[in-house]
Amino acid sequence: MKLLIIEDEPFIAMDLESVVAGLGHEVVGIADSKSMALEMAESTCCTAAFVDMRLKDGFTGVEIAEALRTRFNLPFAFITGNVEQLPSGHCGAVGVVEKPFTEAQIASLLRALAPLT
Known about the structure:
Layout: E1 2-6, H1 10-22, E2 26-31, H2 34-43, E3 48-51, H3 61-70, E4 76-80, E5 96-98, H4 103-113
Parallel strand pairs: 1-2, 1-3, 3-4, 4-5
């Protein structure tokens, strides 16, 4: 799987990247804002994404998730410390993991995303 990570905390993004790579998948980009995320979704060959709710430009994770689903037809999962901010139905996310996450939780999300990529 070729994953786009949408996360504004550098250490969390690097940790996610390491876990994803260790599980045999490729991270094709890390975005920390809505504009960067949408640009990377369009320009990279990502097949799925992990999305945080709060980014550098505020609570834009829901907007990004909607665009991933409707404009790019990309499956995604939320990895966030702001689970309470997610709307009902989670915008069509395959899954939701609350930070701090474990490798087992990330592996489970990747397994859930795999059939959709």
